[in-house]
Write a structure and sequence with these properties.
Distance between the termini: 54 Å
Shape: globular
Largest sheet: 5 strands, mixed
Number of helices: 8
Oligomer: single chain
Radius of gyration: 16 Å
Length: 190
């Protein structure tokens, strides 16, 4: 681990290894590769016990995208896909810039850092998140759900206007419910 990474870990207040190990305990796994599948399974089944445990792991600090660090350090493809995620300071600036907007569109959502910062300024906003990499979608959906956000998540290429999957994230009593929309059932406009 580089010195910069160590400094970034300490700056969040919760070390990356603490978050990783805590997630492993919560999801009963020791594999970073299984974590995404577990996040997806629990967010789609609206497992409030798991969502509560993750919220507690983050010390109820939902202003920070702690899942981003796990994804970026352990799973992002920085070499081939050039995946590098938005620092919280830049995400916060973007949140300020869209503070008065009712709806925010995040074209390269990743795990949701920009969306989360906009939500911090106004939790009643509606969000549309586009993300091309299917492997980060569980992190994004879980992040939105534990914050009880309203969003549409489109898996696809925003620049090419293509999509392979779509999810609706709907606020509930404590955590959002996430529903997968089967693309084969959607009829094209004539």
């Amino acid at each position: 681990m580089t010195e910069t990474t160590k400094k970034q870990e300490k700056a969040t207040g919760i070390e990356l290894t603490e978050i990783r190990d805590g997630l492993f305990r919560i999801f009963n796994t020791d594999s970073i590769d299984d974590l995404g599948q577990n996040l997806m399974k629990d967010v789609l089944s609206h497992n409030e016990k798991t969502m509560s445990a993750v919220t507690e792991l983050f010390s109820s600090d939902l202003s920070t995208d702690y899942l981003q660090g796990v994804w970026q350090y352990y799973q992002a493809d920085r070499e081939e896909k050039k995946q590098d995620f938005t620092p919280k300071t830049l995400a916060s600036l973007m949140g300020i810039l869209v503070e008065k907007e009712e709806e925010v569109i995040d074209l390269c959502a990743g795990s949701g850092a920009l969306t989360i910062q906009a939500w911090c300024y106004d939790p009643n906003k509606r969000f549309t998140c586009y993300e091309l990499d299917k492997k980060v979608i569980p992190y994004l959906l879980f992040n939105l759900a534990i914050r009880n956000m309203s969003a549409k998540v489109i898996v696809g290429d925003a620049l090419q206007n293509t999509k392979t999957a779509e999810y609706y994230v709907t606020p509930s009593e404590r955590f959002s419910e996430v529903k997968y929309i089967d693309q084969s059932t959607i009829k094209p406009a004539v």
